[in-house]
Amino acid sequence: MKQKLPPFLGISHEKTLITTKRLYFVFALFILLVPATSALTADADEIETVTRDLCNLSRFTGSEEEAAGYIGEKMRERGLTVTVESFEVPVATYKGGGGYEVQSVLIGSNVIGVKEGKSNQTVIISAHYDTAAPELPGEVYPGADDNAAGVASMLEIARLLKDEDPDRTIYFIAFSGEDVGLFGSKRWLDAHEDRHDEIIAAVNLDCVAYGDSLRARALPQHRWLYEWLPESESITYERDFGDMSSVGDEVNFQERHLPALRMVDWGNHDIIWDTPEDRPERLNYTLAAECAGAVAGAISWVEDTGDLTPPEYAARVENGTVYYDSPEDLTYEVIVDGQNLGPCPSGSVSLPQGIHTTEVNGYDRLENPLWGPVRYVPGAHEVQIVGYDPAGNRQKIHLTAEGRDLDFPVAAKNNVGIAIWGKRSQEDIETMGLKKRVGCIHSLVYLIERPEGVAAVAGFVDGIRVANLSSENSFHLTPGNHTYGIVAYGEDGEVVGSDETTFIIRSVLGESFEFPPNNNPFYEPGPKGISSELFVGGGALVLALALIVVYRKRRG
């Protein structure tokens, strides 16, 4: 149990004589106050059977009809109401001269199983069922860990919860299109935008059966989700999110400011992911069963709280600083002009005069590194404060507020050696341009050589000041140019060090699947700038399969 036992009735840890009645009273309080989170017992053999069945079915996006039917039938066996939603992935074909032209689409299918609850509050359990296609003709990629076992574990969770009568509605979604750019989850979220406010959490199972341990990954502002899961020697909880070198469908929820958690194994994925070696006989189905049992136990614990009431709190902006207070113990995240600053205590966020812009005379500033710092134009800020209680109930408050003068204080001398990790020097910027970060969620890490001289650190994100900024905090920034600065203060409040950088954010998600990738040496441009492999068989299916063959998902 990660929920710690609180001290009761002033009883110390020393040996104490307690009357029988008082002992019963203490025990009753324990039952009432400490959530009984425990893993449910999942069937490892059933997970293995479903995994092997899926590995024998075609699961390339655009050719997964049989696999979708199999998953839908398994969902119905578990009492779920099943629908299949198709979506298109535009294919941009390279035409030479650096240009792409959209010529075709891949048709993918999301399989959705719904367990209706007594309310519209919704928990999502997801796993993608599509696979990457081989890079070389004749190879077969079974996609056992990535991600047949994740789908099998999701179906096992549905089986474990089959007889439950939940307060919240539970969606079990098998996404397609993950291996061509996370398109299945993106299309589903776009099509159901009216339901976003009802989603209290999403748990994505993506590679959960290779090795002997699992990790849970969530943004700092959503790590209350860790408390849902039971204690387990096989599960670790990541505190440092880092850059998105390894991502899954959870990213699409996070980019819409929806709480999401990914369960992923610690196996050496370089050996098996997107290779013929990702075979079902290599997997640890006991580990997958532990994952399924833990997530099912988490859902049961949330249901047992019986709490569907949004928390109450007040929020205001005074002299450009955002304040909020509540009688409850809540986690807050603050979003200013679309920039998610992560978990911020009351009074730590201050707004600058003017609004950050990436445009100059109508032109976007994404490429030219010589335009200098990001500009700010007059205007009020759009502020959103989101408060979460431990059960995931949330309240949102929207404010429009003016900022104040917040000049970035540059240190006369960097006495403490504070520096932004990975910053590109001015010389490198002039030769290579601004540093580009792929993906919108990043830990903007700073390092301090002499921390003994630092009493506090403040961060400046596009001019927005975040007091007492932790180097482990993660920011969700919109695509475009951004400035990030850090300032170190000494005991008497003087500035003892500072550093600042400008960089470019590019979304990890594109609007089309580009074919062929410029970095794939196996496929040479054929007639009309299209890979010669496309002309072997002709037809829409051959085109779709050939397009998928060249895609390789970025994995860490």
TrEMBL record:
Question: What Pfam families would the database entry show?
Answer: Peptidase_M28
Keyword terms, alphabetized: Membrane, Transmembrane, Transmembrane helix
Entry's transmembrane regions: 534-551
Q: Boundaries of each Peptidase M28 domain copy?
A: 110-296
Report the InterPro entries cross-referenced here.
M28_fam (IPR045175), Peptidase_M28 (IPR007484)
Q: Record keywords: tRNA-binding included? A: no
Q: Which SUPFAM superfamilies match?
A: Zn-dependent exopeptidases (SSF53187)
Protein known as: M28 family metallopeptidase
